[in-house]
């Protein structure tokens, strides 16, 4: 890089990140450049590129030489599965590892009620614990023996993403081995698109907590229905009902009311900064792409657990490669050895994430997406209350009203979707035989 660009770099960063770096001097900025989230983001992307670009040329090479017809040898099955797949497309089958849902009668009322309580308790426990630990790891210090000591704070969000993905990969791999799955049809490399966007969205999710409060993050997640709809139109060419646009507008209104009336507290995570908003936008965009790409990928013959395995496989590959290239992998392991409490939190965080994904699949299979959405919407509301109680986040009256508007809109979406599906399933009037 030319020398004049190095001299301009501190000024450019100060312009891009006024909320986080305005008080830093240029000398300290050059020394602590790794603390700038935008720089870390580009480092992560460069690390992923060192895996994606060679993979792109390899896939192109195997297709160009028609390896499916000419290839042979010990590597042939692996290359065929990764590059070509079985090319069998069907509609999304029910997950064969879980009993399919029967709307008419899937057992006694007491048994169904027990299953519902089990699913709700599993989802709430997994994701409420996950949310509390996520805020604890990203916003609090470790190793302080007295309240006056500052302690040491963990800063590498990418390592937490890797921890989550490696455990989810292990759980989904064991599930695929223990329970029969449909024959896999999609080329493995197609999972890399959803995996990359999923890794970036997860990184943004963790990183945002350094700049914004957890309640703000939860409400921002609720508002992702808006970019999901936009991505649906762009990627999948979907059309939407009028009530979907109405509830999206209500969600936008409620989130805006909360963000504009957020109060400043002593802890930096209670301040909605410019950097935090930018990172949240990145999270919403990447997550919206992930869900729409997975919807298209489900057109190939696969189960939900196979999807979980494929996405997490590439996520582990991307994150561990980037961590090793940056030298951050062993630094994070050293942090774990210095602070056993952090090691426990990181492992428990990953366990909750992996178990939560399995509870998602089981709940949708047993009770459908509507019941699942209601449970998760309640979880978001409880998570905000729990965060305010444990970490002392202040919410104004207008902000509380904005939160109520958001959750009202979410429940309206569920209600309208149920009514619409009930109307479609309404039986046709029978013609009386004479």
Automatic annotation (TrEMBL):
Keyword Transmembrane helix attributed: yes
One of the Pfam families matching this protein, by short name: UAA
Location in the cell: Membrane
Domain of life: Eukaryota
Cellular-component GO terms for this entry: endoplasmic reticulum membrane; Golgi membrane
Keyword Chaperone in record: no
InterPro entries given in the database record: EmrE-like, SCL35B1-4/HUT1
Keywords carried by this UniProt record: Membrane, Signal, Transmembrane, Transmembrane helix, Transport
Signal peptide: 1-22
Membrane topology: Multi-pass membrane protein
Membrane-traversing stretches: 38-62, 242-261, 267-286, 307-330, 342-362, 369-392, 398-416
Record's protein name: Adenosine 3'-phospho 5'-phosphosulfate transporter 1
UniProt organism field: Oncorhynchus mykiss (Rainbow trout)
């Amino acid at each position: 890089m030319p020398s004049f660009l190095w001299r301009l770099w501190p000024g450019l960063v100060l312009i891009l990140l006024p909320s986080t770096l305005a008080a830093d001097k240029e000398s300290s900025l050059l020394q602590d450049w790794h603390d700038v989230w935008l720089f870390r983001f580009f480092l992560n992307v460069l690390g992923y590129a060192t895996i994606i670009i060679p993979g792109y040329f390899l896939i192109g090479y195997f297709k160009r030489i028609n390896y499916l017809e000419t290839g042979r040898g010990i590597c042939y099955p692996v290359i065929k599965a990764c590059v070509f797949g079985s090319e069998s497309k069907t509609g999304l089958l029910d997950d064969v590892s879980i009993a399919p849902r029967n709307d008419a009668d899937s057992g006694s009322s007491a048994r169904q009620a027990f299953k519902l309580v089990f699913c709700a308790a599993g989802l709430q426990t997994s994701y409420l614990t996950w949310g509390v630990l996520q805020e604890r790891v990203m916003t609090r210090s470790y190793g302080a023996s007295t309240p006056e000591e500052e302690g040491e704070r963990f800063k590498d969000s990418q390592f937490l993403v890797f921890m989550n993905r490696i455990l989810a990969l292990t759980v989904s791999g064991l599930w695929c081995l223990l329970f029969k799955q449909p024959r896999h049809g999609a080329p493995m490399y197609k999972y890399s698109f959803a995996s990359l966007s999923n890794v970036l969205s997860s990184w943004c999710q963790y990183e945002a907590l350094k700049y914004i409060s957890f309640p703000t993050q939860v409400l921002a997640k609720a508002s992702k229905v808006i970019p999901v709809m936009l991505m649906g139109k762009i990627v999948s060419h979907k059309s939407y009902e009028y009530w979907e646009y109405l509830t999206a507008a209500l969600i936008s209104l409620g989130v805006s009311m909360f963000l504009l009336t957020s109060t400043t507290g002593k802890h930096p995570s209670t301040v909605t900064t410019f950097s935090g908003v930018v990172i949240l936008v990145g999270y919403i965009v990447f997550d919206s792409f992930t869900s729409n790409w997975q919807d298209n990928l489900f057109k190939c013959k696969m189960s939900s657990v196979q999807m979980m395995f494929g996405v997490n496989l590439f996520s582990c590959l991307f994150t561990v490669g980037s961590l090793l290239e940056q030298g951050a992998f062993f630094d994070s392991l050293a942090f774990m050895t210095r602070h056993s409490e952090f090691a426990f939190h990181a492992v428990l965080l990953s366990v909750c994430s992996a178990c939560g994904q399995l509870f998602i699949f089981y709940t949708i299979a047993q009770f459908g997406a509507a019941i699942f959405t209601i449970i998760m919407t309640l979880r978001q509301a409880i998570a905000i209350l729990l965060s305010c109680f444990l970490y002392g986040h202040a919410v104004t009256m207008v902000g509380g009203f904005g939160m109520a508007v958001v959750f009202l809109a979410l429940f309206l979406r569920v209600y309208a979707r149920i009514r619409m599906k009930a109307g479609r399933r309404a039986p046709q009037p029978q013609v009386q035989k004479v």
